[in-house]
Design brief:
Number of domains: 3
CATH class of the largest domain: Alpha Beta
Radius of gyration: 26 Å
CATH topology of the largest domain: TIM Barrel
CATH architecture of the largest domain: Alpha-Beta Barrel
Number of strands: 26
CATH superfamily of the largest domain: Metal-dependent hydrolases
Distance between the termini: 71 Å
Largest sheet: 9 strands, mixed
Number of helices: 14
Helix content: 10-25%
Strand content: 25-35%
Length: 585
């Protein structure tokens, strides 16, 4: 598959109304441009042009590749490349010596599938009317395989900085859309233009089992039928083009069809189809399609593959497992609310039913988090995909996978050497070796250690430095009172937003509201929990029939609160609050 990759040199935003509602709520958050999902914070988004492009990292532990370590080493970077690695290396006079003593150097991480660099498209005010919903125009049906990522790439997309802060230096990025959004490309997470960022265009045909809304194909079965139709039409169209090229006299001129022509490299086994298949059923459907049509396949974003190991083992089908994992909170999960009712509608569930529900949830939680370990045990190579995952959660999720049986060596391989091999990039990245691109991650402790912080990231030799911001830790034994009226401020790159949080009740039975001057009424807080001095709660913003869950957590010290407000895909913001004195004080 890597040899295949080496040879290749109309969507609407469903959360528009939610984002509008949240914009009203937080005033200043209408333009979410640059946030950093890491305890360390980049000192600048675009690195200042240094006096020299030569850097030296001295007395560092270099993890050249999983299981291959050099201690007390020097890494010399020059003109965007790794110039030397090892001990006893002469450092040229023009080199900038970085304060990295006793730190750890890894190859930059490689993302197997993401939308990094591709912002969400703006929703049109009115969708065009379609005369025949059963045969809509391709762009409205989500069939745009001819689209190139280069034309959609935005170097200012905030996800680039977020992923870079998490240690990722390159990504297989794909367009947004539905059934056939377009073609993927390998991009570097640095650069001021698409020309600087794109390393290799046309590396994949991206597809997913997502139908169009209100238009054919709407259902998964419809998408699969349309896929077969397009693939077979493309084979016939290519055959016709070849016949015309060989003997134009007496042969009808072929019609140029960019949609069908986008399938030609796939038909010729020169470009793989990266199929996003998160659950077991979709994975089986994708494998059925591939078996019927014979195209080169990569399964990406897999979340429920623990029952697929026997089928995938020996298939030579590359797999990128999802880094988007469920958390371990004992709370309602999407789609499970109906399960919490007893046999009769509206009846309160019994203790036995609640126990069974919690057991099912915990079993599912462990299955998701131990999926990578199951693949390792089965001897199946895999990489990781960050598709739909939050950058701030990636290392936490990786550590959880390790706690559930994945070895650190294989985890590192899935971030570096394996995606490099699967994407045909081994000659230029994936290991810390002379001659390869200077894509590096430098940490102050071993990367998978809880206390580790990323201090430097190099992308194509461009240096990004990160300050370590010490995060306050909660004290489970502390006894604090959360009740009261709190005046809060949220901080964003665009400014600040102020409001009021009211907490009532006692620990174990807390409730509250949140409001600001832009809101017509207060919003109810949900899941208000106080564990020691750590306060957590959620609230929802509704708009256009859609709901966005906003999560707040932080530490109470006396009458002050310091924490964060997490707003789904739109970022995480600092939030501080002070409690107002009671009338008797």
């Amino acid at each position: 598959m890597n040899e295949i990759l080496k040879t290749t040199t109309f969507m609407t935003h469903p959360f528009k109304h939610v984002l509008l509602a949240f914009t009203v709520f937080c005033c200043c958050l209408c333009s979410l441009s640059t946030l950093h999902a890491q305890r360390g914070r980049p000192s600048s988004q675009t690195p200042l042009k240094p006096v020299s492009k030569t850097y030296a990292l001295t007395n560092v532990t270099v993890v050249q590749a999983p299981g291959k370590v050099i201690t007390g080493a020097t890494v010399l970077i020059k003109d965007g490349l790794i110039a030397a690695v090892g001990t006893g290396i002469d450092i040229p006079g023009e080199a900038i010596r970085l304060p990295a003593d006793s730190m750890y150097v890894y190859a930059g991480f490689i993302d197997g599938l993401s939308h990094t660099g591709v912002p969400r498209p703006k929703e049109e005010e009115e969708r065009p009317r379609v005369e025949d919903p059963g045969n809509p125009p391709n762009e409205l049906a989500g069939i745009q395989p001819e689209r190139k990522l280069f034309d959609l790439l935005d170097p200012q997309d905030k996800a680039i900085a977020d992923m870079r802060a998490a240690g990722f230096t390159a990504a297989h990025a794909v367009p947004r859309g539905r059934m056939l959004p377009g073609q993927g490309a390998i991009i570097l997470l640095s650069g001021e233009s698409p020309e600087e960022m794109v390393l290799r265009e046309g590396t994949s045909l991206f597809s997913q089992l997502e139908g169009a809304r209100g238009l054919y194909p709407t259902t998964v079965i419809g998408v699969m039928a349309k896929w077969r139709q397009l693939y077979r039409q493309a084979k016939l169209a290519q055959k016709h083009e070849r016949a015309f090229a060989a003997q134009p006299t007496g042969t009808k001129r072929p019609v140029q069809d960019p949609v069908l022509q986008a399938f030609y490299p796939v038909i010729n086994q020169q470009m793989p189809v990266f199929f996003r298949a998160e659950n077991l059923l979709d994975a089986h459907r994708v494998l059925t399609l591939q078996n019927d049509l014979g195209f080169p396949l990569v399964i990406a974003g897999l979340k429920q593959g623990w029952d697929l190991t026997d089928k995938l083992k020996g298939s030579n089908i590359p797999v990128f497992l999802s880094l988007d994992l469920p958390d371990n909170k004992d709370k309602d999960q999407k789609g499970e609310k109906a399960d919490e009712k007893g046999p009769a509608r509206g009846e309160k569930p019994t203790d036995a039913e609640m126990k069974a529900l919690k057991e099912r949830r915990m079993k599912a939680y462990h299955q998701y988090h131990s999926q990578a370990a199951a693949f390792e045990k089965a001897g199946i190579d895999f990489g990781f995909a960050t598709y739909n995952a939050k950058a701030k959660d990636l290392r936490t999720n990786l550590r959880s996978m390790i706690e559930h049986g994945l070895s650190e060596e294989v985890a590192l391989a899935a971030l570096t050497t394996r995606p490099a091999h699967m994407l045909g990039l081994s000659a230029v990245m994936g290991t810390v070796e002379p001659g390869k691109m200077a894509n590096l991650v430098v940490t102050d402790n071993p990367y998978f250690a809880e206390e580790a912080n990323i201090r430097f990231v190099f992308v194509d030799g461009n240096k990004y430095e990160f300050e370590v911001k010490k995060k306050k830790k909660g004290d489970p034994s502390a006894q604090v009172n959360a009740a009261g009226k709190w005046s809060y401020v949220t901080q964003t790159p665009q400014g600040s937003s102020e409001g009021t949080i009211v907490i009532e009740g006692e620990p174990g039975n807390l409730s509250g509201t949140i409001t600001n001057s832009m809101m017509e009424e207060a919003r109810q807080l949900d899941e208000v929990e106080l564990e020691g001095n750590e306060l957590r709660f959620t609230f929802s913003v509704d708009g256009g029939g859609q709901t966005m869950l906003i999560e707040v957590s932080g530490i109470i010290e006396g009458d002050t609160f310091e924490g964060t407000m997490s707003v789904g895909d739109f970022g995480t913001f600092e939030l501080t609050a002070e409690r107002s004195p009671t009338p008797n004080e």
